Amino acid sequence: MTRYFFYFVIVAMLIHTVIFVPRVHIDERFRGAILSFAIGPAIAVVLIAAFTATMRKFKGQGVPEIFAASLPKAVYVPILFVMGLGSLSAGAIVWVHCTFVFAKYLNPDMAPSILLILFVTVTCLAAAQSSKAVMYSTEIIFVLSVPLLLVLLLHGVFSKSLNVDSIRAMLDYTWIPPSWNCLSASTNTFAGFLTLSIFNRLFTEDRKIRYVWAIPFIGFALEILSFFIPIGFHGTDGVDDYIYTWVSTMDAISIKYILIERVISIYLLVSLVITFTYTMFVWHIGAQTIGSCFRAFDYRKNTPLTKLIAFGICALAGIATIVLGLRIDEATLFKTISKWMQIGLPIDLLFVACVYVAGKRLLARRAGS
Fold it and tell me: Which of 64, 111, 187, 318 has a CA between 20 and 30 Å from the CA of residue 214?
């Protein structure tokens, strides 16, 4: 149970710290970004502790089942619908962002729209599978790709091209109070714990999730690396000249003793695999969450109708993603990502509070009966 939970959390961390968060924090680097690295994990550890402790009391059940047993339908259906849309939109934004990157650096001869259609189609087919299949797929991809990405991050730390003076210069801004923008981005790094809302259905053994205390430290380390490595390579002012900060940083790193000398080639391929993994399980969560609002949806039996509903929800999300990718430009996308993370923090707080209250009500009802 523990290892699967960490797979989801760490993959979500990597997506946020390498794709989303660096751009936000670098834009806010003189306005409290560094202090947010400490405050964000502190907020996250409270949310994680409250959420995991509640879900542990309902083995083999997801949040939809807890809500259905403790709240009126008129209350929990809108909550599930909003959370499902949030999960689907997270995957959509990631794919649109990555399509811009891959079309520019990995395959510039192919139209971005074609790439996006291919990505979305594969993701829809994968996300519509059973929760067990999605979980096992995540484990396989995690074991094969994440260690390689971590090696690339560490190689950047020990690179001779890293300018330590630029990093030291940023330490003068350590104690500036963070803005809401960078605080919400820092906390959003840990949003992977919400995957337990659906995948808790598979955790039927009465075992505690161990080493939860390590999650804030892992997230803190990844945020520090994703923030300071680009600054060390490009300078405190020069780092602002790049649209895709981490892609440009990886393009500046080379490894001499492997078959592919340019790190960016490996980085883009690994990022593609991790992006697929992330969008697969967040779209699966979105489809399962929204699908639970329909009476015909039965995740236990996994009937053809259940699969059709899940696939239909993913297909609608895929169509919306393609439309978004065709109509939005890069500047607008970054603004959208920033706004999305700003509203993500209060929504996560409200959702965890709702799960906690619903869990308390259900336990009190069981004790009374």
Answer: 64
